[in-house]
């Protein structure tokens, strides 16, 4: 307890300033707002300032309080600059405190740490007393947010000695959870600043509101007749304006849909329509209903078989994308090191994480150093090629960490050849003087087998498309320039064989056969932008390779984009897959050309050249006697073809041109077997656009939907109730 005489510890200057305040004109500020310069506290301080400065006092309060010559309370002083470290308050702050009738302290847990707020309180108390200090709770509890100095009051005892006694400060609650009573709390602050009773001010505020309502009612009654004369004309004008607005919104929604922004397009289309068939507040415009039906894609569109489905948007530039072939989820890695998981059926975000393997360092190049790879519905591999290295394997369905390997430098991870649904995968890693391949069982959290190959010097550019692995026989392959490294996982041995005159670009395997594509892209050209390449199938004999057949052709590296402007797109020769359709086929792509070869004989069973380079290609609908192929081309064309029929992109009804320049594309199928395309574009590097293939057949019968049915589908799609 502190004992003070009524005039002790008070400077002469402060006494003179207090006495001057009682003989001069009213102070210049209605309130001085003291707060910690944090975003939340500053927002509350601004809210209080606006409320005080914009409030007009009821007439009775103005007439009885002589201090106020205007219905306005006056200006507030709120210092917007953080004060530098100093032992004393700046002159401007001291003058503002002296000229303020009230001190309002914005209280939060961090306020207690501010020496400036405490000094402002102490000086105001010496100038004007503690009765004119108001606490405004912005966050936290009163116990942790209100300064101890405000929880006491100096009260003189019988002998005139001031004693510091516990006291409840005058306070208002503006915490976020107090939104429902926010107006009442602001009125409580205004009453304190005005120096009148809160209950009195609230009653007069209610009376003023009733008076306004009464006056408004009289005015409305007087104008009813006049309004009635023009009611019909006004109704017509209003309806015409709503119709025009609905047509404009419908056009805007279709434009958003064309840009792949399906969710935004649905929300815009909903604004253009009445809320139900019984809603008469907005006329039903056929263009708006047709726009919503098109955006929802409930019926296949013969002119647009690939339709915008959803999009992923991340905080940083997208580094890698992968998805479960079974279509249950998709994962996106951005340059901040964040992995975002999405529901592949509807595009909703299901979770994010920042694995420790994606640590950002000064020398990190995320697009070069990091990768993610979907192995199965229950297996996602994440790796860091450089820096601290490391591999983390999780189950995206349960978020369980299956493996966490710190002492390894991975190059890539891939599913096993000729197996689907398995959580086993191949891992390619490197050391100072070696490369190694491992067979990993993710569910058992175990390395099943591995083999290592010493190398004198690691290649300048590691081509990860040349790594493949199979379980029976247990072998893995990786290309070092013109040579193939064979990892015999069963006996943990490795050997290297030169099998090509050109650099190997891509490798796949099946049993004891290996298919590879080779080309010298940098230094080999005939001068007209045609580069030689070869497709070869060789048999692994155990002590080397025996060539079964080789096919040679040329391909173009640079093609025209959709705007007919030459753009480089190095679609290097690639073995896409080895698939079984009656016989085993090698599916290969090079530049603008697509091929299918017999695995054993090398016979060309299908060949087609497109108008632009192939960005991505994926076999689909593979059965015993037929198959199809989905493609993304560098002119931003999506297509589905069947090599069993004479089709081209100019006659194929499965073609759609999307309005983007492609950086990359990933093709697959969703959980229901529908084809999907994930597109990474040059205009928005933090977005992935998903398109869904919905073919239109001659036998297709368009289904009709009522407005209420369309609205229900739309609200479900965007998560509205």
TrEMBL record:
Residue ranges spanning the membrane: these are 213-234
SUPFAM superfamilies attached to this UniProt entry: Quinoprotein alcohol dehydrogenase-like, Toll/Interleukin receptor TIR domain
Which Gene Ontology terms describe the biological processes this protein takes part in? signal transduction
Q: Which domain of life is it from?
A: Bacteria
What are the TIR domain coordinates in residue numbering? 27-186
Give the source species.
Adlercreutzia equolifaciens
Keywords noted in UniProt: Membrane, Transmembrane, Transmembrane helix
- Fetch the InterPro entries from UniProt: Quinoprotein_ADH-like_sf (IPR011047), ThsB__TIR-like_domain (IPR015032), TIR_dom (IPR000157), Toll_tir_struct_dom_sf (IPR035897)
What name does the UniProt record give this protein?
Answer: TIR domain-containing protein
- Pfam families xref list: ThsB_TIR
């Amino acid at each position: 307890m502190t004992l003070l005489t009524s005039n002790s510890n008070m400077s002469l200057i402060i006494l003179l300033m207090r006495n001057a305040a009682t003989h001069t004109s009213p102070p210049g500020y209605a309130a001085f707002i003291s707060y910690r310069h944090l975003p939340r506290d500053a927002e509350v301080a601004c809210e209080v300032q606006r409320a005080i400065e914009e409030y007009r006092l009821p007439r009775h309060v103005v007439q009885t309080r002589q201090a106020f010559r205007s219905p306005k309370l006056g200006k507030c002083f709120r210092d917007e600059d953080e004060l530098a470290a100093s032992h004393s308050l700046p002159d401007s702050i001291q003058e503002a405190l002296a000229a303020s009738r009230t001190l309002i302290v914005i209280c939060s847990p961090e306020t207690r740490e501010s020496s400036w707020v405490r000094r402002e309180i102490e000086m105001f108390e010496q100038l004007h007393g503690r009765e004119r200090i108001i606490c405004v709770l912005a966050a936290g509890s009163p116990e942790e947010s209100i300064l101890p100095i405000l929880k006491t009051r100096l009260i003189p005892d019988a002998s005139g000695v001031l004693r510091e006694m516990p006291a409840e400060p005058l306070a208002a609650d503006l915490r976020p959870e107090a939104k429902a009573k926010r107006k009442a709390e602001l009125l409580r602050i205004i009453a304190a600043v005005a120096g009148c009773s809160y209950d009195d001010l609230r009653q007069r505020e209610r009376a003023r509101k009733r008076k306004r309502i009464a006056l408004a009612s009289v005015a409305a009654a007087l104008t009813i007749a006049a309004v009635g004369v023009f009611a019909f004309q006004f109704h017509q004008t209003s309806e015409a304006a709503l119709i025009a607005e609905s047509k404009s919104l419908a056009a805007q929604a279709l434009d958003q849909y064309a840009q792949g922004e399906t969710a935004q397009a649905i929300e815009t289309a909903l604004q253009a329509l009445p809320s139900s068939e019984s809603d008469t507040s907005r006329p039903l415009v056929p263009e708006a209903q047709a726009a919503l039906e098109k955006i929802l894609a409930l019926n296949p569109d013969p002119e647009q078989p690939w339709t915008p489905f959803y999009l992923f948007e991340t905080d940083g530039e997208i580094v890698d994308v992968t998805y479960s072939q079974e279509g249950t989820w998709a994962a996106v890695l951005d340059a901040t090191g964040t992995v975002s998981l999405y529901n592949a059926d509807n595009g909703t975000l299901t979770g994010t994480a920042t694995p420790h393997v994606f640590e950002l360092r000064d020398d990190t190049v995320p697009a070069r150093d990091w990768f993610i790879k979907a192995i199965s519905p229950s297996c996602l591999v994440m790796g860091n090629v450089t820096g601290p290295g490391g591999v983390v394997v999780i189950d995206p369905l349960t978020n369980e960490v299956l493996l966490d390997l710190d002492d390894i430098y991975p190059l890539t991870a891939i599913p096993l050849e000729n197996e689907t649904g398995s959580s086993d995968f191949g891992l390619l890693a490197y050391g100072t003087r070696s490369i190694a391949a491992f067979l990993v069982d993710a569910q058992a959290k175990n390395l099943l087998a591995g083999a290592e190959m010493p190398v004198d010097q690691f290649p300048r550019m590691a081509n990860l498309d040349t790594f493949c692995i199979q379980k029976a026989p247990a072998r893995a392959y990786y290309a070092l320039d013109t040579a193939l490294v064979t990892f015999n996982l069963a006996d943990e041995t490795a050997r290297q064989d030169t099998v090509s005159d050109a650099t190997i670009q891509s490798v796949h395997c099946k049993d004891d056969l290996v298919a590879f594509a080779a080309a010298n892209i940098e230094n080999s050209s005939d001068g007209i932008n045609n580069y030689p390449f070869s497709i070869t199938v060789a048999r692994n004999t155990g002590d080397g390779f025996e060539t079964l057949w080789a096919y040679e052709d040329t391909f173009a590296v640079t093609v025209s984009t959709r705007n007919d402007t030459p753009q480089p797109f190095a679609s290097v020769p690639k073995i896409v897959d080895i698939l079984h359709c009656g016989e085993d086929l090698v599916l290969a792509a090079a530049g603008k050309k697509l091929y299918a070869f017999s695995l054993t004989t090398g016979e060309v069973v299908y060949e087609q050249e497109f108008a632009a380079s192939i960005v991505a290609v994926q076999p689909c609908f593979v059965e015993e006697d037929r198959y199809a192929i989905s493609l993304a081309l560098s002119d931003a064309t999506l297509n589905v073809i069947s090599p069993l029929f004479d089709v081209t992109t100019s006659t194929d009804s499965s073609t759609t041109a999307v309005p983007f320049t492609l950086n990359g594309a990933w093709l697959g199928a969703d959980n229901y077997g529908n084809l999907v395309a994930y597109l990474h574009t040059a205009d928005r590097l933090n977005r992935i656009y998903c398109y869904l293939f919905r073919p239109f057949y001659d036998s297709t019968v368009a289904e009709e939907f009522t407005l209420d049915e369309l609205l229900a589908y739309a609200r479900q799609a965007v998560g509205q109730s």
